[in-house]
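Handoff note, outgoing to incoming analyst
You'll be picking up this chain. Sequence as last confirmed:
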Amino acid sequence: MFRKLIETGYLPGDSEDEKLKKSTLLIMAFPFALAGLMWGGLYFMNGLLVSGLIPFSYGILSLLSIAHFLIFKKFRLFRFSQILFILLLPFLLQISLGGFIPSSTVILWAVVSPLGALAFYDVKQSITWFVAFICMVLIAFFLNDYIPEYFNWKLSDKFVLRMFAMNIIGISSMIYLIQYYFVGKQSGLKKSIEEKNVQILEKNREITDSITYAKRIQYALLAHKDLLSNNLSEHFVLFKPKDIVSGDFYWATNKRDKFYLAACDSTGHGVPGAFMSLLNISFLNEAINEKNLEAPNEICNHVRNRLIENISQDGAQDGMDGTLVCFDKEKKVLTYAAAHNAPVLIRNNTITELSADKMPIGKGEIEKGFSHQTLNLEKGDMLYLFTDGYADQFGGEKGKKFKHKQLLEKLLAIHHKTVNEQKNTLNDTIEEWKGKLEQTDDVLVIGIRI
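Most recent structure output, in case you need it:
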């Protein structure tokens, strides 16, 4: 019954902290109201009608405030009224009794008001109530020399001493009980939070383990190191997923005398991006190994059609940007198709950004076929394929993007180095640029020396 009573003022959207404040104030207000009635009755019995009327009126008003809160659930009004009553009651009572000594310093009860404000308001608002308490005490000191002239009840020393004892014990007990309940509830909340944190950590571990296992599956479908080494004399792959799994991927396969290599950026990153990358890889495999398509632009057209058929029926524009290159070993020529992300060629210390179609491999505003691009390579050329993650990384002194232009300048500055040195330099550069900021997107850069 007691639990039901203190939970009556709860609202459906209340947090645990709000519930704690409401129940604590109820537990504090109800005995205070009863104490006011008993206190008033005690003064009535001793012939102090005016003094008795003050705590008795407080008790009635406090009970009405409690009833109003339980019915209408207006906590702000309930909180304000209770803390105000507790602040004013001891001050008025002390004046009616004739000052500090005759009243047994009953004004000390008012200290419960700022303490209550500290518990039920925020720290800044509680300062206002504490200042109000100090002002009440100072006013009481100022009036102390004049009050006895108007209120001389001729209270016995025995009565005054008893009231001293009652005030000391009452104030101490009330403060202790409030803090005992409040701290006990907070300890319960802390224990509950700790238990929930353990559950969250366990769930997080399970999810992380699952994603880590998914990473193994995704990496198994990426271009294998041996496959790249057997078909490319000198190369590097800088692959930095934003999360455990990635929307960026690099994929390769052999078909007759042709070697295909793709560097792509699927829609999204993390788990959604990884799902898209697996779907895109499956369609690339289908185009080359099942449909026997050879031209990179035809392969991209097929993948785009399959993506639109499977995931764009509801208007979604998921797909990928990227570059698919084909090394024709017999003809010694390179053909490619590029969606947004253009490959970059450095020859004789001159950098050239090659052509790319301004449309994704997937549903977009443009529906024409991808362009078939041919490139005659020369020994010593450096060819770079990359997604937009490197250039889009925020960092530096002003927290701005690295940008595409700066990436091209960096590639030109390091292209003469060994491929391993290039990879390390690019990695160190982006890490230094990023600093303490979060990685913006998946990063993929592939460099190939002809």
